[in-house]
Amino acid sequence: MSAPVVIFDLDGTLIDSAPAIHAVSNAVLADLGFEALTLPQVRSFVGKGVPNLVRQLLIASDADADGPLFRQVETALVARYETDVEGNVPYPGVPEALEALAGLGCRLAVCTNKPYRPAEAALRHVGLWERFELVIGGDSLPTRKPDPAMLHRTHEKLGGGRMIYVGDSEVDSETAANAQAPFALYTEGYRKTPVADLPHNIAFSDFAMLPGIVRHFEW
């Protein structure tokens, strides 16, 4: 039996990016004369793509999320995303887990709502870029998660067969369900829902567990 395709979310799953996103967001807001937001505030905005992040930043700043500031903030945010990568760190055990999965013959990919170029920059910064055969960002296709197109495209490009999706959030759970893909929930990311209430096939809190999960998963 061939090894499966293992597809990962990025923010809150492979990397703790909230500190970097927090810094970038506050830098953009400061340039416009707005007050800084807290890390928990910005972390709660992560996961649904840049347009949602921009809207939430503006709403939290008591600004018009549907006015001309939207495009200005979005453009500035994406530009900084590609260069201001300090604060992105892999979760403990991620590099070792990816190496072990590759050793099992798994084909590895990332599907993230973060735009492609910032996703590439973050992955290169933390030394994980070379681990993945394919990365699809939030601007790579006409739709983004929880639409299942990202997962379907990735699965097809990596040869089909068995697939498992690894993520941390409500959006990831919904995406897996929409794609009819098994879902492994990393419990230490950015979810707001209790683990027991978030649909998943299996949950894990330590990336050292993931290779065994993939090896022994009942497909």
Mean pLDDT: 95
Question: How are strands sequenced across the largest beta sheet?
Answer: 5-4-1-6-7-8
Instruction: Kindly give the count of domains.
Output: 2
How many individual β-strands?
A: 8
**Rg result:** 17 Å
Give me the strand/helix succession. EEHHHHEHEHEHEHEEH
Structural class given helices, strands, pairing?
A: alpha/beta
Notes on the structure:
By secondary structure, this protein is α/β, with parallel strands linked by helices. It has 2 domains: 5-16 and 88-216, Rossmann fold (3-Layer(aba) Sandwich), CATH 3.40.50; 18-81, DNA polymerase, domain 1. The chain is built from 9 helices and 8 strands. The strands form 2 sheets. It has a 6-stranded parallel beta sheet, with helices on both faces. Strands 2-3 form a two-stranded antiparallel ribbon. Helix 1 (18-31) packs across helix 4 (69-81) and helix 3 (50-60) packs across helix 4 (69-81). The longest helix is centred in the N-terminal third of the chain and has 14 residues, at 18-31. It starts with a strand and ends with a helix.
